[in-house]
Amino acid sequence: MIGPRRDSKWWGWGDPAVAPQLDQAALATLRERVGDLRPSSRMVELKDFELPDAEPLPQALVDAVGEENVFADAEDRIRHATGCGYVDLTRLRSGRLEQAPDAVLVPAGAEEVKRVLEICATDGIAVVPFGGGTSVVGGVAPLRGSHTRLVSLDLANLRAAEVDNRSLTARLGAGLRGPEAEAELAQHGLVLGHYPQSFEYATIGGFAATRSAGQASSGYGRFDSLVSSIRLIAPAGELTTLGTPHSAAGPTLRELVVGSEGIFGVIPDVTVRVRPAPRQRRYEAWIAESFEAGTEIVRALAQGPGLPDVIRVSDEEETEVSLALSGPRGVAAGLFGGYLGLRRRRNGSLVIVGFEGEEESVARRRALSVRELRRGAAVYLGQSAGRSWEHGRYQGPYLRDTLIEMGAMVETLETSQTWSGLGALHAGVGSAIRDSLASQGTPGIAFCHLSHAYPDGASLYFTFIARMRDGAEIEQWQQVKRAASEAIVANGATITHHHAVGHDHVPYMEAEVGSTGLDVLRAVKDQLDPTGIMNPGKLLG
Amino acid sequence: MIGPRRDSKWWGWGDPAVAPQLDQAALATLRERVGDLRPSSRMVELKDFELPDAEPLPQALVDAVGEENVFADAEDRIRHATGCGYVDLTRLRSGRLEQAPDAVLVPAGAEEVKRVLEICATDGIAVVPFGGGTSVVGGVAPLRGSHTRLVSLDLANLRAAEVDNRSLTARLGAGLRGPEAEAELAQHGLVLGHYPQSFEYATIGGFAATRSAGQASSGYGRFDSLVSSIRLIAPAGELTTLGTPHSAAGPTLRELVVGSEGIFGVIPDVTVRVRPAPRQRRYEAWIAESFEAGTEIVRALAQGPGLPDVIRVSDEEETEVSLALSGPRGVAAGLFGGYLGLRRRRNGSLVIVGFEGEEESVARRRALSVRELRRGAAVYLGQSAGRSWEHGRYQGPYLRDTLIEMGAMVETLETSQTWSGLGALHAGVGSAIRDSLASQGTPGIAFCHLSHAYPDGASLYFTFIARMRDGAEIEQWQQVKRAASEAIVANGATITHHHAVGHDHVPYMEAEVGSTGLDVLRAVKDQLDPTGIMNPGKLLG
User: Which residue from A256, A258, A512 is facing B249, i.e. has the nearest CB?
Assistant: First the structure.
């Protein structure tokens, strides 16, 4: 039995021992772009943290999981009170939370989950399903809705791992973290291939509940496309979708459960498609003349036969700034600087491509990609720059902690659009962010990369950095977030490509699915969760 | 404006001029397998057909589409009273229908559809959306539910075709038939690539509403995977899903509309992903040592890099019988006979593989496939046998008419399962069909092919042929259908891989989605169609 985990920073991302520092050149770039930063002063000890009092829970609920699996001390309540978005971290650093679960329950398995939901439905206790707690959109915010009590249901013990080697499927427990799931599969020589930036801490259940996409999703497929069948334990009943490769028996209920973000019930396990572990991984970097040129290369690849497993094009701003910030300075930046010097230009767009699989498959697909890259006038920078990206692929959130500590607001957001609308979306959202930052007196950086390519379009992933408005951090963030979201909606794009809706994107759901769509989702919610205990305030608000 | 179409047999499939005949060898094979047939006597002239009287419709409904677009004569009512399943054809040949729409309405566009649904919802008139009328599972049966009046809503005039060349998407009207949609796309050098056996008469709206799969779906993708966005006009409102390539904004409502079989509302148009028209098509035949060996080859292909666009493995029985029946005798049968003679064996499994695309892509992918085929000890039969299959790919339903006329029951059914369960499913369903036929005193043929391959499994498509039980044709069919369906359910497989649920599969929906799943679908139905006018008796019963 695994209790609620405590192996990451309670106030930030991941392993406390990993603390990247910026070198002088990076600091200079940052100062040039966002002005002087004043180190963020607010940061309390855990023992001084202010939390609301916990409401007492009915004994039946405690008995449902056993007293030893009910955790109500401050640290566990704090660790289950937020996700890992900028706003979450800002609140945590303030040393005070207005909302926290009354307790964390850690059920031993699906039967206990069922029992917990029964009791909570009867007694009107809100339930927040909790996987890795890595939501950046308020997905695990302890919002009580119309209820006075709330528990966080930590699924860490749902650890099934059953492999069908012949069909290349695996039933994986919701509580398995990315590396844990891969370790189970590796025993069979298999791989899932789902690598979001949160990979090290996020869980299988969370991947399914949020319709996650990973860095290699162009090749392996988004998480939703990897799901062969899924189970949902809802207050009003249990739903298991058939594990056949395809069915024409009506609407696909699997797609109602995937992405349901805990508002219908709990996903105890997911059956996913897996594949043989790749024998080779080859990552390399290229430089395109511009973001537009890089985008056109990716379009050609996505609409032709040669789409790599990983494909990523940074816009000119991201190329310049992220290389400056992502120490250690060296390989990538050195190569890139050399290229720019050679071309006597300041601009260029970094392209990362990655291939995974059998040696022969990597060689074959790389040849197809290289042809398009060269046709699009991209220049090869080599494998070391690619490996440098690969090694740093999960480092973004660590760097964010460093920057927050220095007094910077750092946030990301993502969307997707068809190829026809991608240029306007890139320009519109970038301007909206920069204008909002400037209008608040905190001019900042907004950069973007294209990170998931489809035959009909791609996703854009924006990062922005600015000086914190001291004492008004959340208001500052809200203004930028609103401006960016409105630009996304105005462009007819989706409010989220892979971060999910959580609490933050609720205001944009009507633009996303329309009022009839909202009515349908509410009807499903009423059917499955008639007393509204499941993850109140998320997805539908 | 296109009225209700009359360009196919009202009593059978397709072009009346196409009437394949069996040669002596085929007749001998048939006699040997199913006994002597007595030509089906029952077949009346259209003028003698007995139909129930039509209920009068409110004037407002007539006005909604204009009087000239309301068709209430016998032929149009008959043509909209059934699909094209064996039971439908049996009823039509009897010269009498117990149910028919009161009229056929042919709206000019989406606005008129909306108006029709408003009036029908208010007045309690059942509505059956009608595309090509090619359902083989009772999908357009004029079942009134709790209503006394029923109209067939023929979508023939919903003929939008807007192409986004850059994003490779096209918005296609629900009323476009397969060849019409392809003709529109061909003007842009594009192709949809969706070729179900009903291709020539079925429509875009029907493909979406039934979650169709085509013969080349291993390569082009099933229809559901081609849908980028979809629109639904429901009595309670309109729903349009976002046209972005992907979104993580909650459950995918697109997947609730796709496969909804008209029970939630009308699909006026669908935006699909398209691709450049292939420059080359290469079809070829191989022979595997057995169905099991052929299946293993397909599994290797589907789990590796070389899956062809078309892949199809006939079991030993289908290989033998279908070659005997599918005149003209010649290329395929000759080659195959030669092979069997050479090997001095009676058995073998015909494998059809097809590649479409750029010459280079065809060559590259074929090389990968050939390697697996040879590794699995399959023997190459050549392109002419493959072309022979390609040319006859839409001929099955014509041959069925011939056989019915001769006094044979001919029906097909399909399912899918993971690779691990496929062998048991093949054996179980085959036995169930044969046993049911034998127990009725009409021993017959049951054969099967694997026709859609996925990394985790495949579909099986069964055909059965037996002597009609004269005067008890429908009861005979019901017994076999029930036996086969129960075998499918007992194997944990899906009740339908691509024919949809319609009316025939309703009894198996609980096994498919569970009682909670049914409750969810009913909740969605109640939300979108509160007065239950949309296609009563289908999908949910």
Answer: A512
Reading the block at residue B117, the tokens are 């649904």
Cβ of B501 and A250 within 8 Å?
yes
d(CA A442, CA A435): 10
Q: What is the mean pLDDT of residues B320-328?
A: 73
pLDDT at A389: 85
Shortest alpha-carbon distance between residue A239 and chain B (Å): 6
Taking 90 as the threshold, does the pLDDT of residue B455 lie above it?
yes
Label residue A318 left, alpha or beta by phi (over 0 means left) and psi (-120 to 50 means alpha).
alpha
Final residue in a domain of this structure, among B393, B416, B442:
B393
Stretch 338-367 of chain A: residues touching chain B, C-beta under 8 Å: 357-358, 361, 364
Q: A 506-535 residues with CB below 8 A of B?
A: 508-509, 512-517, 519-524, 526-528
Helix (H) or strand (E) holding B399: helix B396-406
Arithmetic mean of pLDDT, A39-57: 90
Instruction: State the first-to-last Cα distance of chain B, in angstroms, to the nearest integer.
Output: 34
Shortest CA distance from A368: residue in chain B: B361
A251: nearest CB among B250, B260, B515: B260
DSSP category for residue B198: T
Span B480-518, pLDDT tens digits: 999 999 999 999 999 999 999 999 999 999 999 999 999
Domain end among A342, A371, A393: A393
Tally Cβ neighbours within 10 Å of residue B63: 12
Q: Tell me the residue range of the domain where A83 lies.
A: 44-154
In a domain, B165, yes or no: no
Q: Do A250 and B222 touch (CB under 8 A)?
A: no
Looking at the fold, whether A285 and A265 belong to one and the same domain comes out as no
CA dist B469 → B31, B38, B440, B442, B443 (Å)? 16, 10, 8, 7, 11
Mutate to test the interface with A, among B114, B198, B211, B246 (most CBs of A within 10 A): B246
A294 shares its domain with A363: yes
Lowest mean pLDDT among A512-526, B290-304, B338-352: B338-352
In a domain, B140, yes or no: yes
The conformation of residue A425, written as its DSSP 8-state character, comes to H
Q: Which residues of B touch A423 (CB under 8 A)?
A: none
Nearest-Cα residue of chain B relative to residue A217? B246
Measured between CB atoms, does A416 come within 8 Å of chain B?
yes
Helices A331-343, A316-325: crossing angle, 10 deg rounding: 140
pTM for the whole thing?
Answer: 0.96
- In which element (H, E) is residue B113 found? helix B110-123
Which tokens in the block code for residue A473? Answer: 């951090």
Contact assignment for B236 to A509 by CB distance below 8 Å: no
CATH (domain of B322) = 3.30.70.3450
The answer on A227 and A214 residing in a single domain is yes
- Looking at residue A333, its pLDDT comes to 54
Q: Is the pLDDT of residue A342 over 70?
A: no
Residue A67 sits in the same domain as residue A172? no
Q: If you average pLDDT over residues B368-372, what whole number do you get?
A: 96
CA nearest A190: which of A307, A269, A271, A279?
Answer: A279
Residue B101 falls within a domain, yes or no? yes
Q: Mark yes or no for CB contact A236/B521 under 8 Å.
A: no
- How many domains does chain A divide into? 3
Residue B361 falls inside a structural domain: yes
CB contacts of B166 in chain A (<8 Å) are 299, 418-420
Tell me if chain B has a CB within 8 Å of the CB of A493. yes
Look up the CATH number of the domain holding residue A220: 3.30.465.10
Stronger pLDDT, B482 or A342, i.e. the higher one = B482
A402 has pLDDT over 50:
yes
> Alpha carbon of A68 to those of A3, A64, A72, A108, B21: distances in Å?
9, 11, 11, 11, 77
pLDDT at B329 over 90: no
